[in-house]
Design brief:
Elements: E1 3-4, H1 16-23, E2 27-29, E3 34-38, E4 45-47, E5 54-55, E6 60-64, E7 72-73, E8 78-88, E9 91-100, H2 121-124, H3 127-136, E10 164-168, H4 178-185, H5 187-200, E11 205-211, H6 215-224, E12 231-235, H7 244-252, E13 267-271, H8 272-284, E14 290-297, E15 303-308, H9 313-319, E16 329-332, E17 339-340, E18 354-358, H10 373-377, H11 384-392, H12 396-401, H13 412-416, H14 423-434
Parallel strand pairs: 1-12, 2-15, 10-11, 10-13, 11-12, 14-18
Antiparallel strand pairs: 3-9, 4-6, 5-8, 6-7, 8-9, 14-15, 16-17, 16-18
The structure holds iron/sulfur cluster (2 copies).
One iron/sulfur cluster is lined by residues 377-380, 382, 384, 407-413, 423-424, 427.
Length: 435
Amino acid sequence: MTLKILPYGIRLTEGRNSRAAVDMRGIATYVPRVVHVPLSDPERTRLVVSEGDEVYLGSLLAEPLHPHAVGVYASVSGRITAIGPQETPEGELTCVTVENNRRSRPAPGLPRRFRLGGADIAQSMDSSEIRTLMRDCGAVRMDGYPRPLHPDFDPATHKRPIEYVLIDACESEPYVSCVHAQLRENAIQAVSAARLLARAAGRAIPVLCLPDDRPASIQALRIAVEGTDVRISILKSIYPLGGEQTLVRAALGTEIPAGGTAGDVGALVVAASTAFALHDAAKAGMPFLRRVVTVGGRIADPANVWVPIGTPVGELVAFCGGMLDLSDRLVAGGPITGREAGTGEMPVTASTSAVLALPSPVEPETPCIRCGACVRACPERLLPYQIDDALLHDQAERLRSLHPEICTGCGACSYVCPAKRRLAPRIHDAAGGIR
Ligand code: SF4
Ligand code: SF4
């Protein structure tokens, strides 16, 4: 285990103390009054319920229509009171609103008995069985847009065998600590989850990647990996640290070719929250129904909380004692990449790692002073100020030559800019137009 240091990124101090305070507590559980379960893949799923229907915990709400889609399941039991568009952290999506009757009765046929061999799930299933499990339990990636997990583990998807599965436990944004709360509480489960994913990829080596400023998690994992094939890669804590390109570069010392994926270099990168959720679903014999969310920032009683998917962020904030200052804004996700939650009805989705109360930004944008801070911060070695300038002057050819499509939307450039330029959202939007 050697410490890997990346030559870019930013050191964050804001939110570190608050995060540590949340970290040291156990994980609470919240039962919401209502959930708005989002349908994140509307093209490839079809609703099978209507308003007024009664559903059980784990009832199918939308069935998959494509081999690369997964079903959507009710995260609480109760009556469907509405089906319609709603703002979510991933944009406007159709949501199924279920009024919770708090009976938590599982749907008929659940829990489903998977072929589990005691504590060591990975040894009791072969790779195709684990891929079937991923599909049947509705497993989605819990970082970025929630897209199905099982297609990435299909050997036909990759040009070469997968040698490494990197479990991304970097969680480098301020305040967010949901993954490390789970790692600290259940390091043995993290190791088992890493082995489950490595087995799903064939005979890959599982590598847990985490930053050096998480001593409690590192210590717990060091003990848990003893006698297993799981490796630990410790990375110098900077922002941004997670994500496919960054982790492959840091943990394996290789570059993903432009326009390629980690699979092109024989690796798969999976967020630790996804690994935990898959393991949880396999053990319980239930679909993906819940996640841990950090409720923090300027909140009366910050905490990490287990919540059903679809829980309104406002209910969650009230559960944690409410906002300390009502003029703050609520953000779903981290403070750098998260999305303003607007009304408290915005639901927690599979990818919502945090719900934060943060001061409203008041500083206006000013002209670029060519300080170069954004260039030094960018993990993709882009020239954010030049891309911004090309956008400002509508220079399409110059813009293309600067490759904004490589931008991951990490937000580091905006964060460091002394002129308060909103570089990241503009560059990320421009990238969408070029891809
Ligand atoms: S948001 Fe895009 S341009 Fe800005 S630092 Fe991150 S990758 Fe670079
Ligand atoms: S950090 Fe801001 S001011 Fe400095 S070069 Fe980049 S855009 Fe310009």
